[in-house]
């Protein structure tokens, strides 16, 4: 059947529209710098996301998951480019005219704390350009590429005061290239998170070049970050801030994301602030709930405006609540998971300043917004998300969650506190160094008790012992001292189970159901939500190592099949069924992947 389908003539005309042109260039002239680009030779397609290509309309919905010669060539022709940068111009390097593309591409400007200038005058896309925009199904999607050459907006240029030749061995990040493993980590990690309804940019494909270098192609409905706004805010550039704000609002409306947006400009600005508050409060709660570390900072550089994760170089998902892990970025340590909430709140405080500036044309001091009422809204939304998520983790159905949220907040928060006590308990071994940072280990895996407890309550109709409780939740990081059963801990274990049973009883009372029926449903749902084996940052790195080792034999089709199997295996949504491609070529590697995930399930 596949052979017959590949004989069908497919058209790829939408690729031709990805030529550097983007509406941001006309709407926001202060938000980017232009670069000529030329063809980059010797590229090959290392990975291609067929599902995403169909979703954004680049290939038809009935296109087989096969990389035809024609599709291969148009991918390389479209994305196999490198900028002609300042170094090239200064040194009067000439390139064949036929290699130079007709349209200019943009590197966007945004605030970055790595730069000496804290107003965003020198920072932005240091090794990326925006390829353009495509429309499909009533939505438009931004496309950018990482690894397309060294721009003058990189930290290396800003710090050294000189421009670098693309590929220069004198600098690493500043050389303008990205690497194949970066692209594969982003591809696999982002697709797993996307499947589990965690907002993220996604990877369309990875082009490979000699030396292990790559161009990593990224897609999202709107690739603007808070930092795209904050550079204009810090500089007091009212017109530029107004332009990018209006552009963002119009795009969100045209994409159908804000159907209830008001009509007047000032009302839209206030509406934007409220939407951002909801987004970033829920995002911060989700990061804590899912143990997601993305190094959120005051500059708003490592996140998109809708809270989507980007730049997977330092992104991790922990197996336990390792909330003392810090990434070492040479010049400074990163924030921790628990500190990301304060950073998200600070971003909202900055947007409160920006919106007030837009409305009044008077830029007030940021400290005047420290007690702004919108920050109270942030706290309320954050706590509501934490409350609803703990009920979801227990395994309650959405209708049950909503009912408890309306009537039983005190009980929910009591359970949250008990859950948090165990979740945050750390090893007595203390802080220690890692190759990329420092950490202190969490010792209890709370997914395990949420998965096992309803089954045990069903079979025994009574609480389990404190010894058995500890035996279930203990991790490989715990030592004998960590597991000591003090009277205080025994009391916490008893209260944990009693409050858990109280929540089950409340659902039974509200919906006139038996506790047995509820526990049966919770057992099924919790076994999926709290899957024993869950992807971590460490496991993704090891999976990519394995994939790259077998890349040649797998080919692009096998890699995509393997990607789908991993995503299906890591599907934590109890409402959807898991599917396996059962591809003979990947069957052996899939087993190795599962072993990797199992081994690193508690790690960083």
Explain the overall architecture.
The chain is of the alpha+beta class and 604 residues long. It folds into 4 domains: 2-220, no CATH class; 227-381, no CATH class; 395-529, no CATH class; 537-599, no CATH class. It has helices at 2-7, 24-27, 50-55, 69-79, 86-90, 155-160, 180-195, 226-235, 238-254, 265-289, 340-360, 373-394, 398-407, 409-423, 446-460, 466-473, 487-511, 515-529, 537-549, 551-569, 587-599; strands spanning 32-39, 44-48, 81-84, 105-108, 128-136, 139-146, 178-179, 202-209, 213-220, 292-293, 316-317, 326-327, 432-434, 437-439. The chain has 21 helices and 14 strands. The longest helix has 25 residues, at 265-289. It is globular. Strands 2, 5, 6, 7, 8 and 9 form a 6-stranded antiparallel beta sheet that branches. A 3-stranded antiparallel beta sheet has the order 3-1-4. It has a 3-stranded antiparallel beta sheet with strand order 12-14-13, with no helix packed on it. Strand 13 (432-434) and strand 14 form a beta hairpin. 47% of the residues lie in helices and 11% in strands.
